[in-house]
Write a structure and sequence with these properties.
heterodimer; A: 453 residues; alpha/beta; Alkaline Phosphatase, subunit A; 2 domains; nine-stranded mixed beta sheet; three-stranded antiparallel beta sheet; 14 helices; 14 strands; 31% helix; globular; B: 584 residues; mainly alpha; two-stranded parallel sheet; two-stranded antiparallel sheet; 6 strands
Chain lengths: 453, 584
């Protein structure tokens, strides 16, 4: 991924030297054709937001989005789920095409009915990989088959996007204490697990402010990875201290669940509305590696995790349904995308659990940004001959195809060759609303062409 | 767990916010006028070279192969020989042969008998832990069941801070992470961690097969990865997959995925080069019945390993074939042990373990020839009782280890331990002392509380992952907390012993003394200037002016809350948090 680094490096120094208010104007003469297209006719700044929720552990998607009576595979489902993981059809909340959503996902069901939520079935890695270790890297790094990629797909979006302002307080964040793989390698990405703990807490009697200022000066002396990381952390400290997290009141009476995910999405909503310039954010919701006693309908187990996801996303969109600068609405400018590293076996095991599998679902929620109320994807079925190795749901939609649609139609970034190298089969499902751009499957070449290399 | 402390924080903090209570329209206006003091984007371009100023050899070695030098360690290292090579060899020889005694750790543990202040669970046998903690029922049930983990977390801090056998502690951390168990999972893990850590350590300098076999028989692992209930005819694949993927061959080079096993090529040793999904399934089948005496199905309830023939594969569906191993008929436990022996002896395992160890001790990006050399050492010594000791030796004496600097970022636990040692903190972290819990809580926020990560992959070990903003702020928050505690460190008194007379105690001299004491070398001029200026600022004196010249600093008053003490704590803290302290 040398190219991304190169782009970042040179674009940054260029932007810094030019200190442009509207980057598009200054870049227009220098950018290659494929990039200039992205500016469109409105000054070139894209203000949309993507919130990426990673369901670490690999969810049993057949318990989240389930065939109901009337679905051609309900009979197969009943014969595959014989060890206590089947959900009775009558308890499911109907979507379309015979699919139903988990009874604890009533909030998502409501969003589906109002056109703000969509399901993509049979999505996943292009080649089955049942290792958490590899699959989550393949997905978040955006490079299936290569887990050594030094940056994540959202990081490379930030690095190749030319429709961002010259300066952004917080362009990208992980709502975890550590950086997530999708944001790996982008020093401007904030990791903020807990705003209440994002502080030295030394206090004035221990010269906290003076110490932070001295460290900022010292870390600012060099440009090694260690020094840049330290500098960015100390800048983040200043920015976060300027925001009143305790006083935040969600809009429209939105009530977030009292969970980590609820807290994280509330922080993300606040940062969006405070105009920090947030463009991409990731939150993790783990606990899906259910080899035993899955508890599909148990509140303390799988059922409660579904409810958490459902109610958190719903509260988030309700909270964001407010005016945004430049005559916008934050809900309409936001896409929430959910997925895990893989799906699980179509059949359950003897321990009332499910083992690792392949195809799963991707979920998308948002306002006008999302073409919701539909089930997308090409689900081949659950009959023995329809399953991969007689075991897993076939993944027929490459997850990168969905990423690409979000990148192009929502984030206005068509540099697929830099963000998802090797992916050339872009074929939008239509789940995202936004203008089309011709994908550039080659490398973004801002740098070498602008003379700063 | 993260959410709990955050919610507590929100609940107890009543500050009214600027935005709170405004209407939607008002808040949109208020929010759009928010100004921020800084921007994260764009960041400064990163220069990939990350050595900074190169510290002396002894500093580099003790920061890479130990948690960092404590008082006297650098001098002791430098007295080990006439040149760097001799010194390193002598140090490695010593550290690779740890004595059963560990003076400072033993001294701190001895005599602790008051409940809450003791470490009474750490030497209990497995069956004792099982009976007295895992299965405990009665008053204060939860705290009794979790006490072994509470004590083990603190023992990690105690050993890291004070053990003479620093390399052993670093390697124990490595192997606990390699065979990771999420300690908070259930009673069977929470109550059993002393026996788990002890098993991990038992063969740490010995033979890898012995280590692997011991690990597969430990109740904490068998519960964490579900094999305690793995039974025919519906095997649970979880553990089989992770033994292959995480503990032996690794998924990096040796996982061939969903292909036919016959399509997997042979490696340089004539072994089938890697494993497929079929091998995972076959191994899971072999592991049926590899279980724990947990009181179920007529078994005793002791937590000891138990092979259950009744749950084991009955060979009704043909032989077991895992890579090159074919088992035609039921051999009971040997069905598993011969596969484990095969895996431990596999060249792919040698490469995987060699790579991980080198990544721990040297750097993330390694020359292929080094991996080949170390893997070959591991492979050639696979029958030796000191196999692992010699593998460590080969790594530590390699030119790559000797030359490396700054190729790793310190993880939060490593930065905390280095600070603890560099500031010579005197604190035995017993459970009843709230400071120990606060340290662990802060480590958790920073992302590296011992054993506190849910997935079996354990904590990642590559640089970029640990250089996020949240990680660094969380780490410095932990270090600041430690270095501002009363009664466990007296940096003012130590400064006075370094600079015996008041006129010597100028910002320039104080910085210089602590560069030598806490860093082990004098940094570059521009860093010196910043540190001296900082001391001068907070003491409100000139850089060459004694602190006492300002009427508000009395350098004879070294009490906990004195201005002098606070100035010294902040100054030494700054030196400990310099960029060099994040590298190893």
């Amino acid at each position: 991924m040398k190219v991304s680094n190169k782009n970042k490096l040179n674009r940054r120094s260029f932007l810094r030297a030019g200190s442009l208010a509207g980057a598009g104007v200054g870049l227009a003469g220098l950018a290659p054709k494929s990039i200039r297209v992205a500016f469109g006719g409105d000054g070139g700044i894209n203000e949309n937001v993507v919130v990426y929720i990673f369901m670490r552990g690999g969810p049993d998607w057949l318990s989240f989005i389930t065939p109901m009576n009337g679905h051609p595979d309900r009979g197969n489902y009943d014969s595959l789920r014989v060890n206590g993981t089947a959900i009775p059809s009558a308890q499911l909340l109907a979507l379309d095409d015979g699919w139903g959503i988990h009874p604890s996902a009533s909030s998502l069901h409501n969003l589906y009915q109002s056109g703000d939520f969509a399901v993509i079935t049979a999505a996943g890695l292009p080649i089955a990989n049942r290792s958490h270790f590899e699959a989550e890297r393949y997905v978040e790094l955006g490079t299936p088959g290569n887990r050594f990629t030094s940056s994540g797909w959202l990081a490379r979006h930030i690095q190749s996007a030319i429709n961002l302002p010259a300066s952004i307080p917080i362009p990208a964040m992980s709502a975890e204490s550590s950086i997530t793989f999708s944001l790996l390698g982008e020093p401007s990405a904030l990791s903020l697990g807990n705003p209440g703990a994002f502080d030295f807490e030394g206090g004035s009697s221990n010269f906290e402010e003076e110490q932070e200022a001295a460290l900022a000066s010292i870390y600012g002396l060099g440009d090694s990875a260690t020094e840049v990381a330290g500098s960015q952390a100390l800048s983040a400290l200043e920015i976060i201290e300027a925001i009143d997290f305790n006083g935040y009141v969600p809009d429209n009476g939105a009530v977030y669940p009292d969970t980590d995910l609820g807290d994280e999405l509330r922080s993300i909503a606040q940062l969006i509305k405070e105009n920090t310039g947030l463009r991409v954010a990731q939150a993790d919701r783990g606990g899906w590696d259910t080899h035993t006693d899955q508890g599909v309908l148990v509140e303390a187990e799988y059922g409660g995790r579904v409810r958490d996801i459902s109610d958190s996303v719903s509260a988030f969109l309700q909270d964001l349904d407010v005016p945004a600068p430049n005559d916008g609405n934050w809900k309409d400018r936001t896409v929430v995308m959910l997925m895990g590293e893989f799906g699980r076996r179509a059949f359950d095991n003897n321990d009332a659990g499910t083992d690792h599998g392949w195809g799963g679902n991707m979920l998308v929620a948002g306002g006008a940004s999302v073409n919701g109320g539909q089930v997308y994807g090409n689900f081949l079925g659950l009959a023995p001959g329809d399953l991969f190795q007689n075991a897993d749901v076939f993944a027929t939609t490459d997850y990168r195809n969905v990423f690409s649609e979000v990148l192009i139609r929502h984030l206005g970034n068509n540099e697929l060759g830099s963000i998802l190298p090797g992916f050339v089969d872009y074929n939008p499902l239509g789940v995202i609303n936004g203008p089309d751009l011709p994908p550039n499957f080659g490398e973004a070449e801002i740098v070498s062409r602008n003379g700063f290399e | 767990m993260k959410g709990i402390s955050r919610r507590d924080f929100l609940a107890t903090s009543g500050a009214a916010g600027a935005v709170a209570g405004l209407t939607v329209a008002d808040s949109a206006i208020a929010q759009s006028s928010t100004t921020f003091p800084d921007s994260l984007f764009p960041s400064k371009p990163v220069n990939r070279g990350d050595t900074g100023q190169l510290p002396p050899f002894a500093v580099r070695v003790l920061n890479k192969a130990s948690f960092g030098p404590s008082r006297g360690d650098l001098a002791a290292f430098n007295a080990l020989g006439a040149n760097d090579t001799q010194r390193l060899q002598a140090w490695v020889d010593d550290q690779l042969n740890p004595a059963p005694t560990d003076p400072e750790v033993d001294a701190r543990l001895s005599g602790l008998t008051t409940p809450g202040q003791d470490f009474d669970t750490i030497n209990k046998t497995g069956p004792q832990l099982w009976a007295e903690h895992v299965r405990f029922e009665g008053a204060d049930e939860f705290s009794v069941r979790i006490r072994p983990t509470v004590q083990m977390e603190r023992l990690v801090l105690l050993r890291g801070a004070y053990s003479q056998w620093q390399l052993r502690e670093l390697l124990a951390d490595f192997w606990n992470n390699h065979f990771h168990v999420f300690s908070f999972l259930s009673n069977e893990t929470r109550g059993y961690m002393p026996a788990y850590d002890r098993d991990v350590r038992q063969h740490m300098f010995g033979n890898f097969f012995d280590m692997l076999l011991t690990n597969t028989r430990n109740a904490a692992m068998l519960f964490y990865l579900d094999n305690f209930r793995n039974s025919w005819p519906n095997p649970n694949e979880n553990y089989a997959r992770e033994v292959l993927e995480l503990h032996t061959l690794g998924a990096v080079e040796n996982y061939y995925g969903a292909v036919a096993p016959v399509t997997v090529p042979d490696n340089s040793q004539g072994q089938r080069a890697g494993y497929t999904e079929i091998d995972v399934f076959q191994f899971a089948r072999a592991l049926t019945g590899w279980s724990v005496a947990d009181g179920n199905d007529g078994a005793a309830d002791t937590g000891e390993f138990l092979f259950r023939p009744g749950r084991h594969y009955d060979f009704s569906d043909g032989p077991i074939q895992v890579m090159d191993i074919n088992i035609a008929a039921d051999g009971g436990e040997t069905d598993v042990t011969q596969i484990l022996q095969y895996l431990a002896d596999h060249f792919g395992t040698a490469r995987f373990i060699a790579t991980k160890l080198c990544q721990r001790l040297i750097g993330d990006e390694l020359p292929p020839a080094l991996i080949d050399n170390i893997a070959t050492e591991f492979f050639n010594r696979r029958a030796d009782s000191d196999q692992l000791r010699e593998v460590y030796r080969a790594i530590l004496l390699s030119p790559e280890f000797q030359n490396a600097w700054g190729e790793k970022a310190r993880r939060p636990l490593e930065t905390l331990m280095r600070a603890w040692r560099a500031a010579d903190v005197d604190f035995t972290p017993v459970a009843s002392n709230g400071t120990s819990g606060s340290i662990l809580g802060r480590l958790e926020q920073a992302g590296q509380r011992p054993w506190d990560i849910e997935p079996p992959t354990g904590f990642p070990d590559f640089k970029e992952f640990w250089q996020g903003t949240g990680t660094l702020i969380g780490t410095w928050r932990t270090v600041t907390y430690l270095l501002t505690r009363d009664n466990i460190l007296n940096l003012a008194a130590e400064t006075n012993s370094l600079l015996p007379t008041a006129p010597q105690r100028t910002p320039t001299n104080i910085a210089s003394s602590w560069f030598n004491t806490a860093l082990g070398f004098i940094p570059e001029a521009e860093v010196i200037t910043e540190v001296v200026q900082f001391i001068s600022n907070i003491a409100a004196v000139g850089v060459d002016e004694p602190l006492d010249n300002a009427s508000n600093v009395d350098t004879t008053n070294t009490s906990n809350g004195s201005r002098y003490q606070r100035i010294m704590r902040a100054s030494v803290g700054l030196i400990i948090m310099l960029p060099v302290g994040q590298r190893r």
